[in-house]
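for the recovery benchmark. tokens below, seq after
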């Protein structure tokens, strides 16, 4: 059928996006772990968010922040707070 190659391409893109997302989740969790000795969970989450905002490329920030709230994508508690803080930072910059 004519749509089969198109469907395969879409499936491939979705799988690649999920793979990228999992790599980003792993990175956020690792950054949070490395910074965990810096203070309270809230302080560490803010530091992680600032790190992501400063050093991550816009597509990386977009992919991690566009995930639905409440969906478990594998982030630690600090990672979840950090992504929430990053989203607030990005929204504030747009205003």
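predicted aa per position
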């Amino acid at each position: 059928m004519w749509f089969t190659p198109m469907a395969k391409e879409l499936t491939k893109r979705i799988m690649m996006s999920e793979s990228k997302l999992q790599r980003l989740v792993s990175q956020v969790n690792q950054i949070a772990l490395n910074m965990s000795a810096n203070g309270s969970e809230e302080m560490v989450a803010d530091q992680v968010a600032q790190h992501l905002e400063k050093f991550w490329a816009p597509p990386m920030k977009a992919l991690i922040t566009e995930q639905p709230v409440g969906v478990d994508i594998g982030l630690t508690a600090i990672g979840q707070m950090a992504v929430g803080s990053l989203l607030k930072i990005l929204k504030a910059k747009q205003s």
